[in-house]
Amino acid sequence: xxxxxxxxxxxxxxxxxxxxxxxxxxxxxxxxxxxxxxxxxxxxxxxxxxxxxxxxxxxxxxxxxxxxxxxxxxxxxxxxxxxxxxxxxxxxxxxxxxxxxxxxxxxxxxxxxxxxxxxxxxxxxxxxxxxxxxxxxxxxxxxxxxxxxxxxxxxxxxxxxxxxxxxxxxxxxxxxxxxxxxxxxxxxxxxxxxxxxxxxxxxxxxxxxxxxxxxxxxxxxxxxxxxxxxxxxxxxxxxxxxxxxxxxxxxxxxxxxxxxxxxxxxxxxxxxxxxxxxxxxxxxxxxxxxxxxxxxxxxxxxxxxxxxxxxxxxxxxxxxxxxxxxxxxxxxxxxxxxxxxxxxxxxxxxxxxxxxxxxxxxxxxxxxxxxxxxxxxxxxxxxxxxxxxxxxxxxxxxxxxxxxxxxxxxxxxxxxxxxxxxx
Length: 423
Description:
Layout: E1 3-4, E2 9-12, E3 16-22, E4 33-35, E5 39-44, E6 47-52, E7 63-67, E8 70-76, H1 93-199, H2 221-229, H3 259-279, H4 293-305, H5 309-322, H6 327-339, H7 343-356, H8 365-381, H9 385-398, H10 403-422
Parallel strand pairs: 1-6
Antiparallel strand pairs: 2-3, 3-8, 4-5, 5-6, 7-8
Helix pairs in contact: 1-2, 4-5, 5-6, 6-7, 6-8, 7-8, 8-9, 9-10
């Protein structure tokens, strides 16, 4: 039995009531005090104090201070007036019970509203944080793209400068070659004149000169011979150079080697790239990171968290086209379809995820539970309760300790039993 605290002191003004309550050695906290507009209760075991106030108070601005073995209440009146007493006089038990129940109901409603407001505020903060993160990522990506563009322009300018230098060098070489040919021809002419002068033999009695006999036929045999001697060598013949690369050497023993697995993996990667390049020609305009299924999955997750379910579905669709062997893409898209009420598509994606989550191992238990629950939810929303119950029982078999799944399965069983009894 609790001990009722009868000893208390109070005083009042037109706007406030000041109440002092002794605790007699008991230790109180804020959780021991309950206050509403017209009801005040202090429960500090083994002591209990309860009062139905004379008039309503402003419970939001009223305060309570605990210290020195006492609780000091400052209760602000809703309407300025002087009270005849602290508590309501001549109140029967039914009225007191009614006031208590109303006070508790109002306190519960107020707590629900505060919880709802906190939840909304938390969601807004989370949404703002996601948007801020996306803006930062977008700014970082733009900065990287700008750096790439600047580097590309720089390389292009350097390449153009090198081409111009090559052209100037070729022009200079051609001019130099022409000058060298001209000088060579001049030197050949001078040699010809010198040889012709040497071949002349002067006679004392006549002014006629006689040329030395030369080899060959024609009057320009000496010049042609000199040209043959000074002729430039022919250019080198073209050829093909073969480069033999060093073969890969695996240090492990042959019985422990993974050469076959590596070759198979490389083949599959090349085949996947070939399929992407042949079937998805529209992806040529996308950036490099936008062609990554993991990047698209994260993008879809952020859109789902922000409530943009249609945008998340589009991101998952493109990721599935890039890689259709990831079960998490089908699982996440099934969740989006449930939000959008595309129930048949949700069933298809959940079934596809279960096909990929084979064999069943401990690492994929969580994913298999999600797939069964989402498919079962879609079946139940289509009023196919028998199929939905099968999925919920399969999920409960994987995770027997999940009370939420067990509770939902029990509800579906009751619905099925009710339908069977009514029929």
